[in-house]
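Support reply, case 0932

Customer input (verbatim):
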Amino acid sequence: MKIESQIIESLKKKMEELIPIRGLRFHIEPQSSLGENWHPNFIAQVSFKNMQFKILGVLISQQSLSVIKEKISLLKLHASQDRDSVPMIVAQYLSPEKRKQCQNAGVYFLDLCGNIFLEYDSLYIERIGFPNRFPEKRRGRRPFSDKASLILRAIFSNKEKLWGVREIAQSVGLDPGFVSRMARELEIRNYISRVDYKLKLRDPKSILEDWVREYDYKKNQEVRYFCLGKSPNEIIDKVNDANVPEKIQYAFGLHSGANLVSPYAVYNEVHIYVLSQDIINWFADKLKLKEAQEGANFVFLLPYYKHSVFYDRQNIRSLWVVSDLQLYLDLYNYPIRGLEQAEHLYEKRLRKIIES
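Our regenerated output:
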């Protein structure tokens, strides 16, 4: 049974439990999916005291921001044509962020965990704070996993372009079958559409917002050292003076990378991505670094994005820096002034790419 059908059945059985208001009555009518015109998943006839109205309900089973935005937009348009109806998003669970998104759009919500916001005439219901009883199961096809993210990184690099599956596979060194399977997942999440059998990015900003929620900087392995230097800039200059051979793959990340690209926040630790302990040993010997858990100011990152962290890296002042996209992902949830720097980076560098 599809999640949508399960939600409808739960609503029919548990509506009085979900909205425990005496005298409030609901009659839920699922809507057929036949026909070309878009319509809500169900209509609920509601009566309370001497008032009657309709709820136009749309079910959310896919939690991607792009899907929710689109359904809210369609629901509002449909509800605007019926003065005695109110639009409502319904799901197994809606996070505080998703609930706020509904409220900001003027759409009401209800989830099967008990969170609800509904207003009509003199009726006002708001019950929030109920935890998620339906944790989302990890699926095999995750577009923000290491290898899969190469597909999005490639499309982001030229978001106006129509991409063929084999073209993407060749561009990022992935199997065409894997790219094809991931493309179907991206379609389900409303991240891409198909135009003449090719892939077109739909809503880059929503993708990025979903990505930073799933990405976890802490999955990188840190190896911490102390480098003699009065400031992070002096340490960066030491790396520049070391004349790192081309065979050694590295890239500055987090604040140190952002400082080279578009400086804003004050920081104390220099972070460098490398792929192996041998490279760490080379830097440690060349720069006379000392291992130090306390007082460390030079941090190597062994990435959990092993295949994609260096994609589209950039050369700034003869130094390698990860892409603006990777900087944004790392900084967004970084605890020490990371969000400030991420927002600055977005305004100065990413906005024109993401929103143009």
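We compared this against your earlier run and they match. Two observations from our side: The chain has a mean pLDDT of 91. Residues 3-127 form a domain with the Trna Endonuclease; Chain: A, domain 1 fold (CATH 3.40.1350). Please reopen the case if you see a mismatch on your end.
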